[in-house]
Amino acid sequence: MKKSASPWRLLLVAATALALVAMALAVAACGGSSTSEDGDTAASGTIVGAGASFPYPLYSKWGEEHNATAGVKLNYQSIGSGGGISAIKANTVDFGASDAPLEQAELDESGLAQYPMCVGGVVPVINLEGVAADEMRLDAETLAHIFNGDITVWNDKAIADLNPGVKLSDAKISVVHRSDSSGTTWIFTNYLTAAAGDVWTAGADKEVAWPTGVGGKGNEGVAASVQQLSGAIGYVEYAYAAETGMATTQMMNKDGEYVKPTLASFQSAAAEADWEASLPSMFLILVDQPGKETWPIAGASFILIQKDQADADRALTMLEFFNWAYENGATSAEALNYVPIPANVYELVKSDVWSMITVSGTPVWQ
């Protein structure tokens, strides 16, 4: 049954428009100002952030809830991880967000600190008549061949062999990928590199030279394109698929088990993460983790902030928002199928990362 236009669908449309506004924000803002074009700052009751579309639904929800209790608004622009990294390096926002973490050398070069806010799953989504959600099975090599352009029709033998009993048509496969610098792409291509490196040769990065397909801007753009193109396949953060009713696939994981994308399978992927060993950068890759119930295409989403802050009140207001999200945001995170950061990990963040955030040498968070 076809769904009517839901608030979530309207949100996706609005988010695409916000991405365009964010480009103006990056151009118009003066370096070091941490202000938006209309003057919004944390000091005036608004925290300004920009970056990954992967956590956009969650940050929007957290922003609404925190504003209701603290009276501080969140202005978060979904412009992609690459845009978020550029914005925080230029110091035109209070924080940047990226699903592709920076390594220590790049953090040091730009004077940045980094920490995780949530974990989620990247999922293949398809638009193929007669095939229901999670009915199709794929493995890493077949997925890599599809995104390489080697497999071009849905009833190709490689797909059919994985899906006995599923009625597959000879419809042409339309590949949809991200057109912008994307942490979701970084997670997806890191997975293809780790699990199907003999097949996938385009590399692992926020942007790659895609062998085939059409591009969509943000998770929103990819979701919209897959919904519009018959025979399409793309990849999005799971919240975008779950809330819009898109058809996801099962994936074979490292243990050879087919798993569905669920909160439990994302939690399994995050279970072995050794965050303490990742200090001080907190750089971790979570794809292709072991475990029979593990979803293989998982990743953390990170916050990037300047270590040397100009305004103590603004910096503290920002950290108080993230502290509130750590301590009060788990229910909303799980409702949107994100894995909350465990208490022992955010205690590491506060003790080992936020201790580096200073104004004139004085720590902001004490």
Describe this protein with a few key phrases:
ten-stranded mixed sheet; disordered N terminus; 366 residues; D-Maltodextrin-Binding Protein, domain 2; three-stranded mixed sheet; single chain; elongated; 2 domains; alpha/beta
List the helices and strands and how they pair.
Layout lengths: L6 H22 L17 E6 L4 H15 L2 E6 L2 H9 L5 E4 L5 H7 L1 E16 L9 E2 L1 H9 L8 H6 L11 E5 L4 H13 L18 E3 L1 H11 L3 E6 H7 L2 E2 L1 E3 L5 E2 L3 H8 L4 H4 L19 E9 L5 H17 L1 H6 L3 E2 L2 H11 L4 E2 L2 E2 L3
Helix pairs in contact: 1-8
Overall description:
- The structure is a single chain.
- The chain has 366 residues and is of the alpha/beta class.
- The protein folds into 2 domains: 7-120 and 299-363, D-Maltodextrin-Binding Protein, domain 2, CATH 3.40.190.10; 122-270, Periplasmic binding protein-like II (D-Maltodextrin-Binding Protein, domain 2, 3-Layer(aba) Sandwich).
- It is 40% helix and 19% strand.
- The chain contains 14 helices and 15 strands.
- The chain has helices at 7-28, 56-70, 81-89, 104-110, 140-148, 157-162, 183-195, 218-228, 238-244, 263-270, 275-278, 312-328, 330-335, 343-353; strands spanning 46-51, 73-78, 95-98, 112-127, 137-138, 174-178, 214-216, 232-237, 247-248, 250-252, 258-259, 298-306, 339-340, 358-359, 362-363.
- Strands 1, 2, 3, 4, 6, 7, 8, 9, 12 and 13 form a 10-stranded mixed β-sheet that branches. A 3-stranded mixed β-sheet has the order 5-10-11.
- Strand 14 (358-359) and strand 15 form a beta hairpin.
- Helix 1 (7-28) packs across helix 8 (218-228).
